[in-house]
Amino acid sequence: MAPAPEPGSPAASNCRQARQAEAPREVERLVAMGAVAAGLAHDFNNLLLAIQGFAGLAKALLRAGGDTERVLAYVDEIETAGRHAQVLVRQVAALARDGAPRLDVVECSAVAREVVAAFASSVADTVTISVAIDDDLPPLAVDRSHLQRMWANLCRNACQAMGDDGTVLLSARRSGRVEGELCAACRSRFSGDFVRLAVSDDGHGISPSIRDRVFEPFFSGDGRGTGLGLGLTAVAALVHLYGGHLQVVDRSAGGTELVAFLPSCDESRGATADQR
Q: For the whole model, what pTM was predicted?
């Protein structure tokens, strides 16, 4: 173990500067961990209920000498819930690691389609969820589980905004050069070349009077008290963790588009944000 540098020495000064430079990043990591973990606790509890429910059904069938195929179907559901639980655990573990999060090169299209498949069985037949990913999209420097969480939370928010009828679109494309845009979450101006991830819906839209609050914890603008009010907070925390920003866009045909600007692998260190 190396000895601690002498107080007042250049080495001690360098260590102090390094800690100060890392402090904002550590704060962002802790904020993201809290926001994501709170939502994951709710999702994890739902998975536990599913596991307990299907296990109870399988046990009852076995005791009654019931259909083996039905029992196997229940076991399959338990295995599926277990795999989903593993994904949730990885999302928290990725944030809990010391230092910068692991930055995997992720194909947006694959993750987006996984989210659509997961939501397909939980929305009404009158709700359409589709994906539009540009073919020339560059890879993202982002943990795969965190990208999945961003897509899922944005998709859930869009489905809740529409109710039982409408269309949700998950899209991603190059943003082109962005100059001096305003982030809807942190209120900073940002510039750079980004990958523009968006989820749009044709719901009732977001009133201008509450638009600045949609990323606040536990805030719900629908008046129905649905959900925990942490979905968009977690999205904002994760997007900022990777040096990205957010915007809320009114669609001309009605509804809202929530946009996340994330740096690509090539630009992850080139994007800038200026507090104003």
A: 0.70
